[in-house]
User: Which sequence fits this backbone?
């Protein structure tokens, strides 16, 4: 049971802005003026593609300045869809895993320049061949823990407070289930900065394990060593749609505000961050996208006002 009522804050992952409102001043204006929010989880998809260290640093400095001008706090930096298309720290080739670790180090440095407290998300995925070879799978898992600890050392040196690993939607992705996420958190307990769970409540909708891992609310009833950061997206069973919280989507979606917020109110945490992670289809009408974002913000703000007061 919670010893005191936690502060629940609502922010947004700015992945919604990809290819639409790409420049910092564009997405920042929408976040502050149209949505009325002040917290952002910055998506790496908005960094210039294949950015050099210098270009990435310049963009990070711009994000920092523009966010400050709009009264926005960039709370964390998130790996995004482009990185999700890679095996990253679990690639078959050692050289590719080394490159992924170096990429993570660069993104930690970008995060520090933006002024966010932490970064992370997708850490890697096994290929089918590696996952089906038990010896190979166990070896890569052990190596992954070592790499994540080294990244925590770098994050500490850079002044970050934490790193993030995400619960995803496939057994080949570490942390996809409640037991796996608890195990990963425990394995990294002695890291230089905490590896916190970024809990995407829509991903359990894609699972069909026949266990509590398939239920978004069951994830909220676990005891986590570090308070997870919550991502909000709406999906029906069998999907991972990253949908908006519209009336139509909520009629079939598994992420139910009136189950999520009471569970969060039981957490023994001073603050709980919620971030909408809505990824509209590229072909969706731009005005409709914005209207869906506004409706989603209103839906969750009304719930927070109801349960947190």
Assistant:
């Amino acid at each position: 049971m919670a010893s005191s009522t936690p502060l629940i804050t609502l922010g947004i992952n700015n992945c919604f802005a990809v290819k639409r409102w790409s420049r910092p001043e564009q997405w920042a204006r929408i976040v502050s003026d149209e949505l009325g929010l002040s917290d952002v989880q910055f998506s790496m998809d908005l960094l210039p593609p294949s950015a050099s260290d210098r270009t990435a640093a310049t963009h990070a400095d711009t994000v920092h300045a523009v966010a400050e001008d709009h009264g926005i706090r960039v709370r964390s930096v998130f790996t995004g869809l482009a990185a999700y298309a890679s095996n990253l720290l679990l690639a078959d080739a050692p050289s590719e895993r080394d490159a992924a670790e170096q990429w993570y180090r660069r993104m930690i440095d970008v995060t520090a320049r933006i002024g966010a407290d932490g970064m992370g998300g997708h850490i890697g995925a096994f290929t089918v061949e590696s996952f089906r070879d038990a010896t190979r799978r166990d070896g890569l898992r052990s190596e992954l823990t070592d790499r994540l600890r080294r990244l925590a050392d770098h994050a500490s040196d850079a002044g970050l407070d934490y790193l993030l690993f995400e619960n995803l939607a496939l057994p080949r992705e570490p942390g996809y289930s409640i037991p796996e996420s608890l195990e990963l958190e425990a394995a990294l307990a002695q890291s230089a900065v905490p590896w916190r769970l970024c809990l995407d409540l829509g991903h359990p909708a894609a699972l069909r394990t026949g266990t509590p891992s398939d239920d978004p609310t069951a994830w909220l009833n676990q005891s986590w060593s570090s308070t997870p950061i919550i991502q909000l997206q709406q999906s029906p069973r069998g999907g991972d749609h990253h949908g908006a919280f519209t009336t139509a989507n909520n009629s079939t979606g598994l992420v139910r505000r009136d189950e999520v917020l009471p569970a969060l109110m039981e957490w023994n945490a001073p603050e709980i961050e919620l971030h909408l992670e809505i990824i509209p289809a590229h072909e969706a009408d731009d005005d409709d996208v914005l209207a869906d974002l506004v409706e989603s913000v209103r839906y969750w703000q009304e719930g927070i006002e109801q349960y947190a007061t």
